[in-house]
Task: inverse folding
């Protein structure tokens, strides 16, 4: 009881860090998987509720933690998808245990790592210190590496190794960029803690050396860009998505990519306040466009269903990066909306795909046929998800893509044409695959799956709702964030 | 700052770049590990010297960590791994030694041009050269990870890269300690993670040659 009242007296910012941290500790010690999975869901729900609290009461920025209009969007989204994924994970994991792919010992580790990942992502989002943010993103990388390799098959090990090597190289480059930002800030803010604090950096940025910041941004863009999965630094992403447990694919696509993008955006905001510094926009626009085009073509030749949606994640992170790179109130608004929609839709698709792969016993596209007949609820969920991710009306991603394309046409028609062709190629590839997977003649195993449909359809309903009607407060909120992004 | 303090710092940082080059042309596993230990010793000396001239006692901590962990414990542990796995034969390289060294020289030139230009007047001369050297070490570590096929030598490349980052962090005067400890800590964690991987790789493949991993691509028919 005292623990409960203590929890309620907590500040929300501390709570969204403490809850995952403590539950990770408990989950390491908890032997039974049934209770552990429930505790995982409960902890994620509590974290989400506290994150919602942040919308109302904003604490004053401290030396290490702060909340502003920008990161609260990311925090709420991350904790929400974290919560629904934990609910999906509970039913997914039960099946993995039955089929013997995972043992009880590994599940203990898995649940503890899940909460550690939540902790690391929340810390990265609310950190007011560029060093602390770096540490948090590194922690998130290490936990996901361990989770990707959890099945211990050849493929899983290769994926985890690749992810580890590329991820740590990216992280190392980002640290070099972080040190350079400190060096640029030191003459103005003095030595020590202050020269790494976001709020202080933004306030006093006019006096920073632009040359040093330029070099720093290149390193930060390459470093954190690796984690966003931007071409040409994307090589780890398809393997990591395909070989790890599906809840982790959902969290990777829906959350971790966003967290890395958040870091890039923060530094972009810093650069925008320094006169004479390079404009970060063109770099982001070109990497974004390259990702869209590359991923669109790669979508055609895929044989593995999870890999295919991993490439689709590269495409959509490319679109979002492109939108933020274009800048301006409308493109930023659309980028933010698209990022939110992508997180919801992609994790919903992975929820469906996870259960489908369990039911069919394979991830190979060629062996998955006629899903709407064999597994109607899952099959139609997947159809809806793919329609959403392909950007067809009336779902939410159509609106965000439409806004991005139309605002780009007004300012840089050539770029818009390239972007639209990328979108259309991806649409074609996805529809081609969908028609076989969902409506082909059914074959293979048709055993029913013990699935949890609630997280899947909750996400899809939200995406549909956003496509039909966006509530005015949400629009106002996103608009204010878009102005903040410049 | 007196002239000789600057000269010693300069020499140690330059020495680190030199040892990075030595790492590039090692073709025996044990020799590679020995040179990496030397790399860590030079780093420790360089960091300790920075601690002395900046009168920053907390910088002795990363120096000690570099000396104990990276110069002694990790090379010994990796040596054990190498013996256990029976891979103390020649290291296979993707690119020959000669071209690799040429690329390395190019990278050092690049980092000098970039850093010395970017840090024009705003940074004191010592930090400026430290940064240039640190970037060279980082890029050489990256190059080593690219040109080596073997998992153990990729780890060595990664750790030499981290050494370059620590050189940069300690050269940046007054950078908060949080970051240094976290760097050292992350090296430890990274090593544990890698260690687990190595054992799993051995269990599954009887080899730590990363090319063996490549044949298990997820999409092979």
Result:
């Amino acid at each position: 009881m005292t623990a409960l009242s203590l929890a309620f007296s907590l500040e929300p910012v501390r709570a969204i860090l403490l809850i995952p941290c403590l539950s990770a500790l408990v989950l390491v010690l908890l032997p039974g998987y049934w209770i552990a999975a429930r505790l995982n869901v409960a902890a994620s729900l509590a974290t989400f509720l506290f994150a919602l609290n942040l919308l109302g009461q904003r604490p004053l920025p401290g030396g290490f933690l702060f909340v502003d209009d920008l990161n609260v969007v990311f925090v709420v989204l991350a904790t929400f998808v974290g919560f629904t994924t934990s609910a999906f994970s509970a039913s997914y994991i039960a099946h993995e245990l039955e089929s013997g792919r995972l043992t009880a010992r590994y599940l203990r580790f898995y649940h503890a790592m899940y909460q550690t990942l939540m902790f690391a992502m929340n810390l990265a989002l609310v950190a007011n210190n560029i060093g602390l943010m770096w540490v948090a993103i590194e922690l998130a990388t290490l936990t996901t590496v361990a989770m990707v390799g959890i099945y211990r098959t050849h493929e899983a090990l290769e994926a985890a190794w690749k992810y580890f090597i590329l991820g740590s190289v990216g992280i190392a480059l980002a640290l070099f960029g972080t040190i350079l930002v400190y060096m640029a800030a030191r003459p103005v803010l003095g030595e020590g803690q202050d020269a790494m604090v976001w709020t202080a950096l933004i306030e006093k940025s006019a006096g920073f050396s632009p040359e040093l910041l330029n070099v720093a941004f290149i390193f930060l863009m390459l470093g954190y860009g690796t984690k966003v999965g931007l071409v040409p630094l994307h090589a780890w992403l398809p393997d990591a998505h395909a070989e790890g447990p599906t809840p982790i694919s959902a969290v990777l696509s829906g959350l971790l990519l966003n967290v890395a993008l958040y870091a890039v955006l923060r530094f972009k905001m810093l650069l925008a306040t320094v006169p004479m510094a390079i404009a970060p926009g063109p770099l982001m626009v070109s990497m974004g466009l390259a990702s869209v085009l590359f991923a669109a073509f790669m979508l055609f030749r895929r044989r593995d269903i999870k890999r295919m949606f991993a490439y689709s994640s590269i495409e959509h992170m490319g679109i979002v990066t492109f939108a933020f790179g274009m800048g301006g109130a409308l493109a930023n608004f659309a980028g933010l909306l698209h990022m939110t929609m992508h997180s919801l839709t992609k994790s919903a698709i992975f929820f469906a795909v996870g259960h489908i792969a369990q039911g069919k016993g394979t991830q190979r596209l060629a062996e998955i046929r006629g899903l709407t007949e064999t597994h109607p609820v899952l099959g139609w969920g997947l159809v809806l998800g793919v329609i959403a991710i392909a950007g067809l009306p009336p779902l939410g991603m159509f609106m965000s893509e439409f806004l991005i394309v139309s605002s780009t046409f007004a300012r840089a028609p050539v770029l818009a044409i390239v972007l639209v062709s990328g979108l259309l190629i991806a649409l074609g590839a996805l529809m081609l695959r969908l028609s076989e997977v969902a409506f082909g003649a059914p074959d293979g195993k048709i055993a029913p799956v013990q699935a949890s449909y609630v997280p899947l359809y909750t996400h899809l309903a939200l995406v549909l709702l956003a496509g039909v009607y966006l509530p005015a407060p949400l629009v106002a909120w996103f608009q204010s964030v878009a102005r903040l992004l410049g | 700052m007196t002239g000789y303090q600057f000269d010693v710092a300069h020499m140690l940082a330059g020495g680190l770049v030199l040892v990075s080059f030595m790492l590039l042309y090692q073709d025996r596993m044990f020799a590679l590990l020995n040179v990496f230990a030397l790399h860590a010793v030079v780093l420790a000396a360089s960091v300790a010297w920075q601690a002395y001239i900046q009168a920053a006692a907390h910088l002795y901590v990363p120096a000690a960590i570099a000396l104990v962990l990276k110069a002694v414990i990790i090379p010994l542990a990796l040596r054990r791994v190498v013996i256990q796995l029976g891979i103390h034969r020649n290291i296979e390289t993707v690119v020959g030694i000669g071209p690799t060294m040429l690329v390395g020289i190019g990278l050092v030139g690049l980092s000098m041009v970039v850093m010395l230009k970017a840090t024009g007047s705003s940074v004191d001369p010592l930090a400026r050269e430290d940064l240039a050297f640190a970037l060279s070490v980082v890029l050489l570590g990256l190059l080593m990870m690219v040109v080596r096929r073997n998992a153990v030598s990729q780890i060595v490349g990664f750790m030499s890269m981290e050494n370059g980052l620590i050189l940069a962090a300690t050269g940046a005067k007054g950078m908060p300690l949080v970051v240094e400890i976290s760097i050292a800590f992350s090296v430890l964690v990274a090593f544990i993670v890698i260690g687990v991987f190595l054992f799993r790789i051995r269990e599954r493949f009887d080899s730590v040659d990363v090319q063996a991993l490549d044949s298990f691509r997820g999409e092979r028919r």
User: Anything to note?
Assistant: Chain A touches chain B through 53 residues (CB under 8 Å). Chain A has 20 helices and no strands. Residues 186 and 192 of chain A are 8 Å apart (CA to CA). The mean pLDDT of chain A is 89.
